[in-house]
Amino acid sequence: MPAAPLTTVPSLPSPPSFRGRIGCDANSGYYAVSRRYRLHLSLSCPHCLRIAITHSLLGLEDTLPIVLLPAVPDRPDGGHSALRSLYEASSHRHPGPATAPVLSDDWTGRIVSTHTPDILRDLARHFGGDGSDRPALYPHGAEEEIEAVERLCEYRINEAAQHAGQADVDATVCRTALSSLLRVLGSLECRLATQDFLLGDEITAADVQLWVTLVQLDTVHRLHLDAAAVHRIADHPHLWAYARRLAAHPGFGSHLDLDGIARRHHAHCQGLEAAGAAVQILDWAVHIADGSAQQSQEGLDGFMEPQHALHLRPSSSA
User: Fold this and answer.
1) What's the CA gap between 241 and 192, in Å, rounded?
2) 270: pLDDT confidence band, cut at 50, 70 and 90?
3) DSSP label of 26
4) Which of the two residues, 269 and 52, has the higher pLDDT score?
5) Whole-angstrom Cα distance, residue 116 to residue 100?
6) Whole-angstrom Cα distance, residue 88 to residue 266?
């Protein structure tokens, strides 16, 4: 498929990457200490949304504070003014935008990392603890599968959906991208027809990644697709029932800023809106509200919506 330019987000400069890691002991430089570090997140950003969900699932509210940033960056370069001093302290005359997510160190006043996969893994491995009530988001032996899901979501869903919705390229490119996207969704549909979560019976980091990707597919990429394409994407009942169930889980749905996602997208979008914009796949706000109501009655374990609950047989990890 030709590498045509994408139209849903602007081209931003590539700033230096901060790739510090949280280690296990003092010799690592950055080691796990309660309330030493701080997360700076804008929930309209899919990378930040993944981190916020992971933070909640691991119960890190009292261990690792979060600073919420505006949905739409306030600087012309696409960065956040509130992060500029951190970037300048960490990289003299930092040339690029001060973007989120950021994991910062309160002891040094500098950035540890802006790299989402590293941040996610360090939260789970060094802050998640061993409590029985906390999910093993990166279970032993599942690392390669989780990385494969990350690549699939980035290239086979997000990138394919962007190409399928371009208005300024040959129609063959769009059809090829849409066909590729539908093949992936069909594969996920088959898997979720026989198990509760992507890798088996428990929530893992793969589910966090896929759920955020499905949110983007319905709230952002759909806006540039024609109505027929959106109907074909929606025609995966087990996949979207899975997305519905996770939306009702407080660790997921409570972080979903639908208005912020819309404002961020429209502030930066360079593409053309298509008929698919009128064909919403899920009413995310309703399912989040249903989950909140059910949580108040049943607690955290009762997050499935009774009117949509699937009776799935137990399954070992796929």
Assistant:
1) 9
2) confident
3) G
4) 52
5) 10
6) 29
Structure-block tokens of residue 215: 């949110």
Between CA 78 and CA 61 the distance in angstroms is 28
DSSP one-letter code for 311: -
Residue 115 tokens read as: 């790299």
CA dist., res. 158 & res. 164, Å (int): 10
Alpha-carbon distance of 48 to 212, in angstroms, equals 10
Q: Interior CA angle at 37 toward 36 and 40, to 5°? A: 150
Which H or E element spans position 89?
helix 81-90
User: Other C-beta atoms within 10 Å of 92: how many?
Assistant: 6
Give 110-158 pLDDT, tens digit per residue.
Answer: 999 999 999 999 999 998 766 667 889 999 999 999 999 999 999 999 9
Beta bridge partners of 58: none
Average pLDDT, rounded, for the chain: 87
Q: What is the pTM of this model?
A: 0.87
**Look-up of token digits 């997921």:** 252
Q: Are strands 37-41 and 66-68 parallel, antiparallel or unpaired?
A: parallel
Q: Exposed, middle or buried: residue 313 (CB in 10 Å: 0-12, 13-18, 19+)?
A: exposed
Asked if residue 73 lies in contact with residue 9, where contact means CB atoms within 8 angstroms, the answer is no
pLDDT class of 295 with cuts at 50, 70, 90: low
Residue 241 belongs to what H/E stretch? helix 237-247
Separation between Cα atoms, residue 230 and residue 245, nearest integer Å: 21
How far is Cα 308 from Cα 9, in angstroms, rounded to an integer?
A: 34
Which amino acid is present at 32?
A: A
**pLDDT (average), residues 40-55:** 98
Is 207 within 8 Å of 151 (Cβ atoms)? no
Residue 306 neighbours by CB distance under 10 Å: 9
Contact 193, 313 (CB under 8 A): no
